Backbone:
């Protein structure tokens, strides 16, 4: 029999499978499956989302046949299965649930498009389908050979570690992570979100590969892949995003037609408009969520099952690096810093000679010439430093002094001030480049402005 | 005796538009089997559906169908997931005629174009073993809504 492990490419969800079952009365049934999950060398799992004919048949007659198509060779395989059990909790259920709920949250279908059970089947036989021989050996559907090595190697991890150690500040570290992820692993689109002012929400602090950086964009826990990763603290990978979103859309329309009213609120996909694969990695230190790294591809990137362990190690490593950078910023405040390396960012439109900045204390929000700039702690910090700078344009600010200012409302414990300042600095670079926060040492900065500032409110 | 449904003109147009088509059959031990079909044709009157599949696939299915003619056919459009399941019995099998080759490839072209929207390259359809086909004619006994969601499996007609 063909070994189940040799078919790992079939379990990435890139090409739908189909399932044949038969009732106890001898009536067969056929259904499309979006994903078949590998469990162990003798078992696979199928998602149970709706109590449909396939499920009823399996409860009457546990025999099933699944046809898989290898996405690399296009060879078809027929698997004879026997239903063993339905799991409603545990690691297998959780990993399948997270993937499905991430899609559901993008489609406003949480609670309808959900996993009811992870149905585990024993694999009785696997045979290649003679009339589905696929492509000539060595070729893949994209025309590339299938001998491409995995990007995740210990050597790559070692190099990533080396580059990260060289980053002098948290600001540089975030850029260095994204730059290294592109140069070592080939992910051209990536973003890092860290915990912000609001509980159960993450804010985008650094991104790479997108036309607009989107610094300050927020994602709530449970929203989309990033939010699901934050909630579950487990990596999630979804391949064939477009196909799965269309599947969810069909479910939504069907649900409305049957009198169910799924939540119409849709969470816009951060990043690529039509990603083919999204991967979210939790950044965890001793079970504490520091943030989430999200990478996207616009092609059917081959994440293998064994990559999961690697990604968890990578996430843990990045989380420690970020947390260490935060601690270092505080412990060595005032130290001189090497110049911040130039980082390619989205082009900014500058050149305004006068700016009107309005602060709305109740909303803790600043508008620049009527356009939203920033809110929350970063807004209060900016307002404070701009007001003080009115009296002394050369004044320097330290993080220590900001922490002591009760008007800023920073929490006593884990105030995230360093990441708030990075967000503010990057938000200014994107939206208001005439004003700059220039680091003059570790935990020390001054404000530069190329325009005449008119401060209103506050 | 229960009256069997007929395929409406609108549904017939959908079923013949170039879809993902999967057959399911079974053996004496109720063990299911299945195969891909490449095209479907609704016969006049709407009470029979002919599906075209590669002759090797057809032979494998016929070893079961000769003793157990029950058959299920799932027809699905990948971009919208509109889907329908036809259940019935095999009433005839033959080699596809040369004039039916164009019908089969026209539906494959439409299906491949649909897949292309989803990012599946043409190399996928180029790898399919299509011709020569066999034509399996099936009596339409039940029609089911197969679009995924809470109402999946409901009777269509």
Residues:
């Amino acid at each position: 029999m063909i070994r189940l492990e040799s078919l790992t490419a079939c379990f990435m969800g890139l090409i739908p499978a189909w399932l044949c079952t038969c009732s106890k009365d001898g009536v067969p049934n056929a259904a499309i499956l979006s994903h078949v999950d590998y469990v162990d060398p003798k078992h696979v799992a199928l998602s149970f989302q709706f109590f449909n004919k396939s499920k009823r048949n399996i409860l009457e007659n546990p025999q099933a046949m699944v046809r898989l198509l290898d996405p690399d060779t296009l060879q078809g395989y027929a698997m004879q299965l026997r239903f063993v059990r339905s799991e409603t909790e545990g690691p297998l259920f959780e990993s399948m649930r997270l993937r499905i709920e991430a899609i559901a949250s993008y489609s406003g279908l949480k609670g309808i498009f959900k996993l009811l059970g992870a149905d585990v089947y024993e694999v009785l036989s696997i045979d290649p389908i003679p009339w589905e021989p696929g492509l000539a050996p060595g070729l893949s559907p994209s025309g590339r050979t299938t001998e491409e090595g995995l990007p995740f190697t210990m050597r790559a991890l070692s190099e990533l570690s080396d580059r990260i150690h060289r980053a002098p500040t948290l600001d540089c570290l975030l850029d260095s992570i994204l730059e290294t992820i592109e140069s070592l692993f080939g992910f051209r689109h990536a973003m890092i979100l860290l915990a912000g002012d609001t509980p159960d929400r993450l804010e985008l602090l650094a991104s790479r590969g997108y036309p607009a950086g989107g610094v300050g964009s927020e994602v709530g826990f449970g929203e989309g892949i990033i939010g699901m990763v934050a909630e579950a603290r487990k990596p999630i990978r979804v391949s064939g995003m477009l196909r799965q979103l269309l599947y969810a859309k069909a479910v939504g329309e069907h649900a409305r037609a049957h009198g169910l009213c799924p939540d119409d609120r849709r969470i816009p996909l951060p990043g690529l408009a039509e990603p083919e694969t999204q991967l979210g990695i939790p950044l965890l230190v001793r079970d504490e969520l520091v943030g989430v790294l999200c990478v996207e591809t616009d092609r059917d990137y081959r994440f293998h099952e064994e990559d999961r362990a690697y990604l968890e190690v990578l996430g843990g490593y990045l989380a420690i690096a970020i947390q260490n950078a935060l601690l270092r910023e505080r412990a060595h405040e005032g130290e001189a810093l090497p110049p911040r390396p130039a980082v390619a960012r989205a082009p900014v439109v500058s050149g305004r000679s006068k700016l009107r900045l309005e602060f709305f204390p109740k909303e803790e929000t600043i508008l620049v010439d009527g356009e939203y700039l920033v809110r929350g702690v970063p807004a209060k910090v900016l307002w404070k430093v701009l007001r003080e700078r009115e009296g002394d344009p050369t004044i320097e600010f330290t993080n220590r002094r900001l922490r002591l200012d009760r008007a800023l409302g920073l929490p006593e414990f884990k105030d995230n001030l360093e990441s708030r300042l990075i967000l503010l600095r990057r938000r200014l670079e994107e939206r208001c480049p005439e004003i700059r926060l220039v680091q003059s040492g570790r935990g020390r900065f001054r404000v530069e402005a190329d325009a005449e500032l008119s401060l209103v409110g506050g | 005796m229960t009256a069997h449904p007929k395929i409406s003109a609108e549904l017939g147009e959908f079923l013949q538009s170039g879809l993902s088509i999967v057959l399911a059959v079974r053996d004496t031990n109720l063990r299911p089997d299945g195969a891909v079909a490449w095209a479907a044709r609704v016969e006049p009157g709407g009470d029979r559906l002919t599906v075209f599949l590669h002759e090797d696939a057809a032979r494998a299915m016929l070893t079961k169908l000769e003793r157990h003619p029950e058959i299920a056919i799932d027809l699905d459009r990948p971009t919208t997931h509109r889907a329908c399941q036809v259940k019935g019995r095999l009433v005839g099998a033959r080699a596809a005629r040369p004039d039916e080759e164009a019908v089969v490839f026209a539906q494959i072209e439409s299906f491949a174009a649909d897949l292309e929207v989803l990012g599946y390259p043409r190399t996928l359809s180029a790898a399919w073993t299509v011709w020569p086909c066999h034509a399996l004619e099936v009596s339409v006994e039940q029609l089911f809504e197969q679009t995924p969601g809470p109402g999946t499996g409901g009777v269509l007609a």
